[in-house]
Amino acid sequence: MARPRSARARVRSALLYTWLVVAVVVVCFPLYYIFEGALTPTAWLDEGLEGLLPIHLTLDNVIRATQVIPLGHQFLNSLIVTLVQTFFQIAIGIASAYALVFCGLRGTRALFLLILSSMMVPGETILIANYLTISSWRLIDTLPAVFLPFLASALSIFLFRQAFLSFPGELREAAVLDGAGHVRFIRSMLLPIVQPTLISVTLVSATAAWNGFFWPLLVTNSPENRTVQVGIAQLSSAEAADVGVVLAGAAMVTLPVLVLVLLAQRFLAGGITAGALK
Amino acid sequence: MSYRPRVLTAATAAGAVVLLSLTGCAASGSAPGADSGPVTLQFWHEMSGPAATELDALVSQFNSQEDGKITVESSFQGSYADAQTKYTAAVQSGTTPDVLMMNDISTGFMVDSKKTVPLSTFTAGDPSFSLDSFPPVVSAYYADGSGGLAAMPFAVSQPVLYLSRDLVTRAGLDPEAPPQTLAEVASWAEKIHAATGASGLTMNMSDSWMIEQMTAAGGEEFCTPDNGRGSDRVTGLELTSPSQVTFMRQLQTLFQDGTMLNPGTDNSAMVSAFASGKVGMMLTSTGAYTAADPNKTASKVAAFPSTAESDEAGVVVGGNALWISGEGHSDAQQRAAYAFVSFLHSAEVQAAWSSATGYLASNTEAASTSTGIASLADPNVKAMADQLASTPASDAAAGCRTGAFPSLRSTVIGAFTQVAEGADVTSTMADAEEKAADQIAAYNTAAG
Q1: Domains observed in chain B
Q2: Is the confidence metric ipTM above 0.95 for this complex?
Q3: With an 8 Å Cβ cutoff, are B93 and A132 in contact?
Q4: How far is CA B151 from CA A10, A257, B87, B121, B326, in A?
């Protein structure tokens, strides 16, 4: 009796592992290709299979990529944009969600729906309006133009609100009775409990800020005011692509996000489904 | 599939034109003509990769030559579509660049939006300018109503036929006597495929560019009436003429029997496939030369095959041109902009640009410069230059001009992709004609 069952179990686990291996290969191969290609001369990459083996490694592509565009400066710009944009999205998200959930204001449901509805407006439709606003403030081709329109994010307000709703009311009452003010309560009680949401919202905001392309392209002109995503776009060309240099650029912009996500990945998936669980 | 979204796209493009013509009135007219002071010019371009590096070098060369009197600040603006969006926004906020590079098929849009000064306004008073310095089909492509040019042609390309010497020879064919008609190309492709197992032929399938070129290569007009080159503007596309149906059936057979490689939307994969000896022949831009054949010896470049006998037959030029902004830019800035685009057209610059990028020189005198002579020593480059010089300036070869063009391309390639997969040629392309006519009508109505 035991024999066939264990054989079946073995087949099942073999199938499971095969499937997992396939999934891992599908997910990891593009990443492998970016990093291997970044370090392999284009001539080898054009050879097909042989170019996929990490046997001709050199930093040549990376060096050439940095010669074409001021990557160091643009990295700094991207970093500033990401930090400022993420900080404000988190701060405004926490404050708004707190007001919606704990302050007993009237009409919060309508207000919340209004905030949610702003997520349903496609970004492309307000692009030109935003451009005109930024332009009338004489901020075209400056770094603040890149992050100003994105300081508040409906998504982060939504995610914080869902997390705050699960906070036990009694605890808050107890804190208020003990004399905790709004800031004290948020800092000492609320945030430690919603930490997974905090981390995942930070990751989502930071990744979106880092990956921004079209808006930064639109509002900046000089290479020294541009972000690294816009910078590397100039490396690739439809007809005469130097694949190695393009991959070197891609590897350099992917690396920070990859490290960030690897460090905090266990919170990322948890945060995305946090709203759904509630 | 519904064609509503496509009509919408066309309407949006047309809406942009209307916005362009309505706004910008607030922009200050001519700033005081500060003739004596130094001028700084904003130049927006969409060149990337090696072409961007070369363009930046040319801009620096101009700046040091002007020694502070004119300083050009060049700025990369993403793809041509990105740049068109940004330009529309810039017109509304009065922040247009002094010089804008725009691609071939946006010529209709740029002319309709009336935000730039026709180049002919400047060339009329410039004795050193000569229309004869352009290959005839180039000046025909960018012609304005007055007999002059609407914009300064800069990067010029044309499609050609690339043959892999190795695969062609292995099929028992002689690369030095390349096929001249599409029917001959088809039979070569079959032979290469049968003898070597490699694909016989491939071509761009990411948009309708090849269909436009094969139409022109049979002396037919792609847009009606008169490719938009006469007094009336374009109202429809011609996709079902007898010669078009013939070449589409030939291509359909090649796709269906596996002789022809369909690269889908990935043009660089197509070029890599040719470069690594997986395809015998390739129909694509002259601009792909360095990527297709890095050592310049593995391939033979031949003229684009004709699809029908006609004196009007020839291939349309692609690439881009330089537009000079009017409103909101002082006379001094406009004159400086003209000096800059004239510099980029000069024989020496065009020779250097062409040799560094694979684009064809838009100045016929570039061939007599030392750089030009060195480039033309390569028989493949010579073949490309000869094709450009001998293309007639007919309405067919001048190509279609309509502001709706960018949205039409996806309609046509969508239909032709179905044809490649086996759909009936006449009915599929007739459907596409109908959809295209709707898109053009939406654009024309909105553009007023």
Answers
A1: 23-157+318-398 (3.40.190.10), 159-315+404-447 (3.40.190.10)
A2: no
A3: yes
A4: 72, 43, 16, 10, 13
